[in-house]
Amino acid sequence: MGMEIERKFTVKRIPDDIESYEYHTIEQAYLTTEPVIRVRREDDRYYMTYKGVGGDNTSLAHEEYNLPLTAESYDVLSRKADGNVIGKRRYLIPYLSHTIELDIFDEPFRPLVIAEVEFSSEAEANDFVPPEWFDKDVTDCRQYRNAYLSRMTFD
């Protein structure tokens, strides 16, 4: 894949017509968080992802590479992961020339909902005007990263 440029937001509310949008069921587990190496099941596709740190050490842009896996290799690797396995439903919502990826997390992270938007350049990312139902820009807040969530503990 190469360089990924994205922004993350919390949301004030989930769109009323959410069920009308295409979605993916995602499960992911982290083998390491520095650097991020994760395995993911997305519907019936499986892969391993390596995420590097961006050139300026921010969350806006970073290297990302995906390698395909079989279901069997995903099962083996996900059992070796440390921490929480993260489950979520990712809705794909068209917005202007972009696609909003709205992640609605399963337990134990519910009611967490995060919107992500990917961009072709940092300038495009910086010029993005979010829809009114978005709330805070949490791109640089580590507690909203999946790798961080994978390390959370619950009582």
* Strand proportion: over 45%
Rg, nearest Å: 15 Å
Major sheet: arrangement of strands? 1-5-4-3-2-6-7-8
Number of strands: 9
Structural class: mainly beta
Order of helices and strands: EEEEEHEEEHEH
Give the helix level as a range of percent: 10-25%
Q: Regions with pLDDT < 50 over 5+ consecutive residues?
A: none
Textual characterization of the structure:
The protein contains three helices and nine strands. 12% of the residues lie in helices and 46% in strands.
Lay out the secondary structure.
Blueprint: E1 2-11, E2 23-33, E3 36-42, E4 45-51, E5 61-68, H1 71-79, E6 86-95, E7 98-105, E8 113-119, H2 122-127, E9 134-137, H3 146-149
Antiparallel strand pairs: 1-5, 1-8, 1-9, 2-3, 2-6, 3-4, 4-5, 6-7, 7-8
Question: What key phrases describe this protein's structure?
Answer:
155 residues, mainly beta, 3 helices
What would a concise description of this structure say?
The chain is mainly beta and 155 residues long. Helix content is 12%, strand content 46%.
